[in-house]
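Deliverable D5.2: sample structural annotation.
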Amino acid sequence: MTAAPATAHVTLRPMAADDCEMVFTWRNRPEIVRLSSSGRPVDWEDHLSWFRRRAADGTQPMFVIEAAGWPAGQLRFDAEADRAYRVTIYLVAESTGRGIGVAALRAGCGRLLAEGRADTFTACVQAGNLPSRKAFARAGFRDTEPPAPCPGGHVRMVLTAGGAHA
């Protein structure tokens, strides 16, 4: 995959059935597995089942992040409560360190806010993943205490409607 230019225009495209294999490949890249909450790869059957359930649900948005027209990662929103979502994002290594993640977070959260679907976003970020923590902070998220319901070794970062970057 060719990397997008550093000044790439970032867009979000709703995930389609054709994206299932690409997302599976991304999810099992060693750098993604290392930074995931589970710390382990997923098998194809589990991924396929998860992907089909998510696609059929329709209430929990999933996007392919594109930078200058190139697929760069995924952004998804998992409903936690009324108008509250947990945010998960990852970029392929070739697309990191360019502001693409920050732009995607702002665009995705801004979209759900504008649609009136959300007012609170939570992310669980590995405490030692400083680039990701900085990206969430640049997108308006703030560390909160206590870190629950995040797994051990993670920090909880929250963005509320009043602190959003639309």
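Annotation notes: The chain has a mean pLDDT of 89. Helices lie at 20-27, 30-35, 44-57, 100-114, 130-138.
The annotation will be released with the project's public dataset once the embargo ends.
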